[in-house]
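4.2 Preliminary Data

To establish feasibility before requesting continued support, the project team ran the inverse folding procedure on a target of 320 residues. The structure was first converted into the token representation described in Section 3, and no sequence information of any kind was made available to the design step. The complete token record follows.
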């Protein structure tokens, strides 16, 4: 059977199963099963945070089953859902959410997605009432993209042209947001598609095209490549910013974004609500309101940049 036909059969079977007809009503003779799906991202901290939060909510090894998977093929993912009788899926990356939506069209999905606008791409109807089997935590991309450019411009006011590293796999919402803000700030952007290997070539091209700073848009790959990105930024002489604190901790100049571990802890609350009978379609999507600014002064010294006192005063963490 071809892959598309196989997936269609599984989707049809799931949609027609009484277990997946709305809210999850669990019987007393079995424990609920949570499927944690993470594709192309670092999962250690997120998984640990999820487990901590589930424990605080009263879940133990005896009263729930947590399956961790990073499927190579969508058919493996589908088989896991049907064979393990999954009650709720926690998808912790854009690729994971897309795979879950393709396979499990009636199984509740809790997303932790830092790169996608769920309304813009048609995944949900509204943030307040998703209306489908998907809910969870997403970011306000326009506001965050604006802040990245503002921080870079404050630290490097002469940077009239800025390189933007963009992972096409994350969609276009971040890119559109940063381009809109750049027009307001009269900044010229040079967008480079994120490819690893090949990051050294991207930074060399950015320098040759007279870019004076770099904004690294959010992608699961950034956490994985954070040390290389920080080293290349310094070697190219480009003050750079990423969403992830790990980037600044690895040697990048700035990080401004959210604590993904805290978001994973919050995701456990969504999971708990679904397992207790609420429908994903009725649980409002949340967006984080707390953001952290991390500054690496050691890197600033290497780049010969004097970080403004105004930025230092707002920093949540300063690495010296």
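Position-by-position output of the design step:
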């Amino acid at each position: 059977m071809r892959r598309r036909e196989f997936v269609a059969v599984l989707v049809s079977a799931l949609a027609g199963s009484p277990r997946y007809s709305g809210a999850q009503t669990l019987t007393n003779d079995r424990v609920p099963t949570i499927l944690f799906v993470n594709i192309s991202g670092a999962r250690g901290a997120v998984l640990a945070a999820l487990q901590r939060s589930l424990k605080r909510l009263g879940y133990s090894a005896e009263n729930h089953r947590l399956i961790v998977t990073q499927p190579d093929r969508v058919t493996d993912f589908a088989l896991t859902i049907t064979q393990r009788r999954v009650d709720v899926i926690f998808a912790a990356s854009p690729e994971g959410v897309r795979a879950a939506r393709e396979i499990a069209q009636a199984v509740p999905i809790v997303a932790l997605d830092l790169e996608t606008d769920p309304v813009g791409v048609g995944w949900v109807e509204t943030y307040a009432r998703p209306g489908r089997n998907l809910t969870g935590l997403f970011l306000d991309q326009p506001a965050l993209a604006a802040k990245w450019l503002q921080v870079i411009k404050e630290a490097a006011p002469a940077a009239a042209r800025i390189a933007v590293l963009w992972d096409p796999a994350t969609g276009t919402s971040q890119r559109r947001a940063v381009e809109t803000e750049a027009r307001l700030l009269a900044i010229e952007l040079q967008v480079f598609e994120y490819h690893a290997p090949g990051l050294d070539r991207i930074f060399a091209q950015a320098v040759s095209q007279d870019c004076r700073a770099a904004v690294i848009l959010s992608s699961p790959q950034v956490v994985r490549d954070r040390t290389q990105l920080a080293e290349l930024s310094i070697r190219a002489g480009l003050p750079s910013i990423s969403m992830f604190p790990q980037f600044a901790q690895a040697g990048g100049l700035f990080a401004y974004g959210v604590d993904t571990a805290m978001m994973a802890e919050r995701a456990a609350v969504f999971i708990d609500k679904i397992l207790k009978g609420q429908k994903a379609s009725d649980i409002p999507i949340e967006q984080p309101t707390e953001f952290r600014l991390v500054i690496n002064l050691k890197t600033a010294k290497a780049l010969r940049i004097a970080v403004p006192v105004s930025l230092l005063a707002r920093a949540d963490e300063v690495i010296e």
